[in-house]
Design brief:
This protein is an alpha/beta fold. The chain is 27% helix and 26% strand. The chain has one domain: 4-Layer Sandwich (Nitrilase/N-carbamoyl-D-aminoacid amidohydrolase). It has a six-stranded mixed β-sheet with strand order 5-4-3-2-1-15. Helix 1 runs parallel beside helix 3.
């Protein structure tokens, strides 16, 4: 396992219900970033289908969605089936270039027709290493996706990697659970947006969130958001790579398409945790008295 890892976060615009077009763009980016030395390439949430519609309750469907009557079925058709072409192609590229890819995908349920997951898939040179299905579904995602039921960390030649998706970041227990399972890198993929007629109030919001999760767990936190527009909303970009001690290693300061690159040193996890006693100072015996309290 190497200590130094070159990471690329791909902040790009996803075409609504056009998986073939989105895959073609992702293939080109992987080849380009591989030539530049990338070892871990991260794509945003629902990179094969675009975000669910309407994006907010009561908003109109975009022209590309097919409208309310057709959208759910069209989303299922665009979602990736088991052993589908999207994952197969990403596996081929990961093997060809000896790298790892994290991609946000709408996945079809392997058995139940019409049922889908909002997932993050980790692919390495030898195929799919793990799939995480989003546990905390944001607003209208609940209309289309079933919730995930498990948290896991995947062992890779780059280091242990844990995955989460967008809204998951607001639940600190999830990142802590990944840390306790050994995660040294945590990827959070987003399709976070704002109404086009309302400017972003805090341009550092994604940095604040990533910084917090990184430092309270001593992990490299890789936050990759979407760019572009869909319906009446604009995706907010501002992807960022944060070290365990909170240092901002690289970031995008815009909502435009961008690639955020950094070299991370996995040994920095041990350096930080050996100084800050995140594991030794925890009082799980006390927390457990309160964390199971019903709402």
């Amino acid at each position: 396992m190497t200590s130094k890892v070159n990471v690329s976060l791909i902040q790009f615009d996803v075409q609504v219900l056009e998986p073939a077009s989105n895959l073609e763009r992702m293939q080109a980016v992987i080849r380009s970033e591989a030539k530049a030395g990338a070892q871990l390439i991260v794509f945003p949430e629902l990179a094969n289908t675009g975000y669910v519609e309407p994006l907010t309750p009561g908003a109109p469907f975009s022209p590309e969605s097919g409208g309310a009557e057709q959208y759910a079925f069209r989303l299922f058709q665009a979602a990736e089936p088991e052993n589908g072409p999207f994952i197969t192609s990403l596996c081929d590229l990961a093997r060809e270039h000896s790298l790892h890819v994290v991609a946000g995908l709408a996945l079809r349920h392997p058995v139940q027709q019409g049922v889908m997951y909002n997932a993050s898939v980790l692919i390495g040179p030898h195929g799919v290493l793990g799939t995480y299905s989003k546990i905390h579904r944001w607003h209208l995602e609940k209309l289309y996706f079933v919730a995930g039921e498990s948290i896991s960390v995947q062992q890779t030649m780059l280091g242990p990697i844990g995955m989460q998706i967008c809204y998951d970041i607001r639940f600190p227990e999830l990142t802590r659970a990944l840390m306790l399972q050994g995660a040294q890198i945590v990827t959070n993929i987003w399709a976070s947006f704002r109404p086009q007629d309302k400017p972003l109030e805090d341009e550092q919001i994604f940095t604040h969130r990533a910084y917090t999760r990184a430092t309270e767990n001593g992990v490299f936190f890789l936050s990759c958001n979407r760019a572009g527009t869909q319906g009446n909303c604009a995706f907010m970009g501002r992807s960022v790579i944060v070290a365990p001690d909170g240092k901002i290693l690289a970031q995008s300061t815009s909502e435009d398409e961008d690639i955020v690159r950094a070299e991370i040193d996995i040994d920095d996890v041990a350096r930080y945790r050996s100084y800050v006693g995140l594991a030794t100072d925890r009082r799980a015996d006390i927390y457990s008295r309160y964390l199971t309290a019903p709402i």
